[in-house]
């Protein structure tokens, strides 16, 4: 079968000597085209390097002018938005402050009710008691039993501190005498 293919090629090229020439011309044209594409790419690269700096600078100038135009247009809008935002934030702060005030008032009222249920004297009760003690001291002085002048009441500390617990000294075991 291999012989059959070889003979078919020989007979085709023998019949068409022009076909070999066409193939060679086509190969030569493809090589020249590839060379031209390569040279065009190298030329484009060279031009891009030479003109790239100029192009970059012109793009920067164009960008600056567009930025200035955008800032002019947006400038007024930014101030308007800023004013609206500040207004809304102020309103929100006011509402939050009112909410905290109401919450604080509710908390104070509930604490006061709990203290009354536990029969803890209020500030007014203590003031009335102090006034009453002072008036009784005054009456005692008049009767002749000179009571010592009243000293200002000091607040008790929040929680008394406990001294750290001391470790007990380890008990030494008596050495055992071994029975021999």
From TrEMBL:
UniProt xrefs under NCBIfam families: PHA_granule_1
Any Pfam family: Phasin
Region (Disordered): 1-26, 141-180
Protein name as catalogued: Poly(Hydroxyalcanoate) granule associated protein
Species classification: Bacteria, Pseudomonadati, Pseudomonadota, Gammaproteobacteria, Lysobacterales
Bias (Basic residues): 163-180
Taxonomy, superkingdom: Bacteria
Biased composition (Low complexity): 147-162
PANTHER family in the cross-refs: SLR0058 PROTEIN
InterPro entries: PhaF_PhaI
């Amino acid at each position: 079968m291999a012989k059959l293919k070889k003979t078919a090629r020989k007979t085709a090229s023998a019949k068409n000597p022009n076909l070999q020439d066409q193939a060679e011309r086509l190969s030569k044209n493809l090589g020249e085209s590839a060379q031209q594409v390569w040279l065009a790419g190298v030329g484009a690269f060279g031009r891009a390097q030479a003109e790239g700096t100029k192009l970059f600078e012109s793009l920067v100038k164009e960008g600056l002018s567009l930025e200035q135009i955008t800032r002019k247009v947006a400038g007024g809008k930014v101030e308007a938005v800023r004013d609206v935002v500040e207004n809304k934030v102020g309103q929100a702060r006011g509402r939050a402050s009112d909410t905290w005030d109401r919450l604080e008032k509710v908390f104070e009222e509930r604490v006061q009710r709990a203290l009354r249920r536990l029969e803890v004297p209020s500030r007014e009760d203590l003031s009335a008691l102090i006034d009453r003690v002072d008036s009784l001291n005054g009456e005692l002085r008049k009767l002749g039993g000179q009571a010592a002048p009243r000293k200002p009441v000091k607040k008790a500390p929040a929680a008394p501190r406990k001294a750290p617990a001391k470790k007990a000294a380890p008990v030494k075991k008596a050495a055992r005498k071994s029975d021999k």
